[in-house]
Amino acid sequence: MSALTDLSSFSTYPIVQAPMAGGASNPRLAAAVAGAGGLGFLAAGYKTSEAMYQEIRQLRDHTSQPFGVNLFMPQPGTVDPSAVEVYAEQLSGEAAWYATALGDPEAGSDDGYEAKVAILLEDPVPMVSFTFGCPERAVLEAFTKAGTYTVVTVTTPAEALAAQWAGADAVCVQGVEAGGHQGSHRDDPQLDGAGIGLLSLITQVREVVRLPIIAAGGLMRGEQITAVLAAGAGAAALGTAFLVCPESGAPALHKQALTDPVYARTELTRAFTGRPARGLVNRFIREHGRYAPAGYPQLHHLTLPVRRAAADLGDPQAMALWAGQGHRLARELSAGALVETLVAEMHAAEEARA
Fold first, then answer.
1. Residue 19: inside a domain
2. Residue ranges of the alpha helices (H) in 39-155?
3. Is residue 29 part of a domain?
4. If you average pLDDT over residues 316-336, what whole number do you get?
5. pLDDT at 31 over 70
6. Which of 291, 332, 321, 334 is nearest to 87 (CA)?
7. Are residues 92 and 195 in the same domain?
8. Which structural domain range is residue 301 located in?
9. Whole-model pTM?
10. How far apart are CA 216 and CA 120, in angstroms?
11. In this predicted structure, what is the pLDDT of residue 2?
12. Is 2 a member of any domain?
C-alpha cells in the first residue's frame, strides 16, 4: 500500500466524517462520504476486533477511496469501585422501570485495543486515529512502517505536544463544542468545565506543534469549515452534521431529537459513561448527571442495558443522545448531498471574503 503523506491527499475536499462509536459510523456512511469527495471514517470503539475487520472489508467492497479507522485507547485502572457501586444503587430505579438488569461495570477497559492494532498492522488501512490518549512511539512507528497515516485526538496544547513527541502524523483538535465524548488523554474531574473552544484551541495548538490539524467541534456549515481552515486547520471533521443522514446507523429517535425543540440545549455529562460527553439534555442527564462519578468505561458498561431498553421502548429520555452545540443546524440530506452542500457553502464564503 502506498503511503499518503498529508491531509490533502486523502480526499478531494477538506471534509472529514468524524468517527462516531456506537453504530452511527458504518461502512455505508463512510463510503457515501468518500464517494462525494470527503474522507469517511469507521469507528472501532465498542466493537470487537472481528467486527471492526468485517466493517473494513465491507467498506472496501463499496469504495476504493481512502478512509480512516478510529480506535479507543485502553483506560487506566484508577476508577474507585465504591463510587461505581453507589451510582449503581442510584440507577436501580431506572433498571426496574425499563425491566432490565444493570450491566457489569467490569466488562473490560481496553476495548480490544491490542487485537485491533494487530489487525490494522497486518492489513493496513490509509488512516488510523486514536481517542482517549496517545499510543506509545513504537506503535505509531509500526503504523508508519505499514504505510498508515496516524492521527491523535487532542483537547489541549499539552496533549498536542505529547502526540508530536510520540510521532503522530497529525492531530485532531477537538473543541469543547463537539458532540459525544471529549477525547482528553487524562480524565480529571477537577478540569470539568475547563474545555477550550475550537477556534482558540486551533491557534494555541499551532503555537506549539508543527503537525497538520483536523478541526472538530460543533461544525455544521461550510462557512464554519472555511473559518477553521483560515485559522490554520488542514481539514474539518463533522460528526453531528452526518448523524442525521439516512446512511448513518444512529437510531431514528436520536436523529429526530437533534432538531426537536423539546431538546433545547446540550451539556457535557458523565451520566451515561463516566467520562465527559456532550449530549442533548434529557431526563436521565437531569436526574443523574450531577451524581455520576469519573468512571469510564465502567459506567458505560453499567448503563448500557438501560439505554438499549429505552431505545427498544421508543423512549429517548434515557438514551445517550450525543450531539454537538450546533445540533439544531442539522439537515436531513444524504451524506453525498451534504458534502456537496458544504462545499458550495465553502465556495460562497470564500467569494464573500474575496
1. yes
2. 49-62, 81-90, 92-97, 113-122, 137-145
3. yes
4. 97
5. yes
6. 291
7. no
8. 81-108+264-320
9. 0.95
10. 24
11. 37
12. no
All cell numbers assigned to 80? 474507585
The H-assigned helical ranges of 170-315 are 198-208, 222-230, 240-243, 252-258, 283-288, 298-312
Residue showing cell 453507589: 86
Rg (the chain; Cα; Å)? 19
CATH classification at residue 70: 3.20.20.70
Identify whether residues 287 and 151 lie together within a single domain: no
Residue scoring higher pLDDT (194 or 155): 155
Let me know the angle formed at the C-alpha of 340 by 198 and 235, rounded to the nearest 5 degrees. 30
Q: Answer yes or no: do 273 and 206 share one domain.
A: no
Q: Do 20 and 35 belong together in one domain? A: yes
Query: What is d(CA 55, CA 235) in angstroms, rounded to the nearest whole number?
Result: 24
- 187's torsion region: left (phi>0), alpha (psi -120 to 50) or beta? beta
Grid coordinates of 111: 476495548
What's the pLDDT band for 83 if we cut at 50, 70, 90?
very high
Quote the pLDDT of residue 6: 82
Q: Could you tell me if 215 and 235 are in contact, meaning their C-beta atoms sit under 8 angstroms apart?
A: yes
Task: Return d(Cα 324, Cα 258) in angstroms, integer.
Answer: 9
Tally of structural domains, the chain? 2
Encode pLDDT of 96-134 as tens digits. 999 999 999 999 889 999 999 999 999 999 999 999 999
Digit-coded pLDDT (tens) for 257-313: 999 999 999 999 999 999 999 999 999 999 999 999 999 999 999 999 999 999 999
Statement to judge: residues 127 and 274 lie in one domain = no
Let me know whether 179 and 295 are in one domain: no
**Quick one: pLDDT at residue 5?**
59
Residue 3 reports pLDDT greater than 50: no
Q: Which secondary-structure segment (H or E) carries 267?
A: strand 266-269
d(CA 337, CA 344): 11
Q: Look up residue 248 and give its three cell numbers.
A: 448513518
In this structure, are 122 and 209 located in the same domain?
yes
In a domain, residue 251? The reply is no
pLDDT at res. 4 = 52
What is the identity of the amino acid at 138?
A: A
Neighbours of 334 (CB within 10 A): 13
Indicate if 89 and 126 belong to the same structural domain. Answer: no
